[in-house]
Amino acid sequence: MNQLLLTTGLYVLTAVAEIVGCYLPWLWLNQRAPVWVLLPAVLSLALFVWLLTLHPAASGRVYAAYGGVYVVTALAWLWLVDGVRPQLWDWVGASLALAGMAVMVLAPRTPA
Asked: Comparing C-alpha atoms, which of 107, 89, 85 is closest to residue 97?
């Protein structure tokens, strides 16, 4: 269980790094933020890539399972940063994505 919590925390941190790395250029392009916001965006995306390397499972499975956590994290970002409250169907879709992630992460594995 402890490993599951650590892995989930790593997924959330990875998702935040990716979202920040994409959100800052969006601010620059669409909200006229200063150009210097691109530097932390690049650093955040580099952090995102590095964090993906810390996951112990095979990379394809990591990326697929990460997608479920990313969806929920993006909805939280939408609510907390953009001030747009997700609707019921947003949460239903996010729950389905997390259920798929749980199947991938928690499924018993046979040695390769």
From this structure: 89
C-alpha dihedral, 55 to 94 to 22 to 46, nearest 10°: 0
**DSSP string across 35-73:** GGGHHHHHHHHHHHHHHHHT--S-HHHHHHHHHHHHHHH
pTM here?
0.84
Give every CB contact of residue 27 below 8 A, 6+ residues apart in sequence: 33, 37
Mean pLDDT by 10 residues, the chain (112 residues): 82 95 96 96 96 78 83 96 96 94 82 72
Tokens read off for 92 = 């239903």
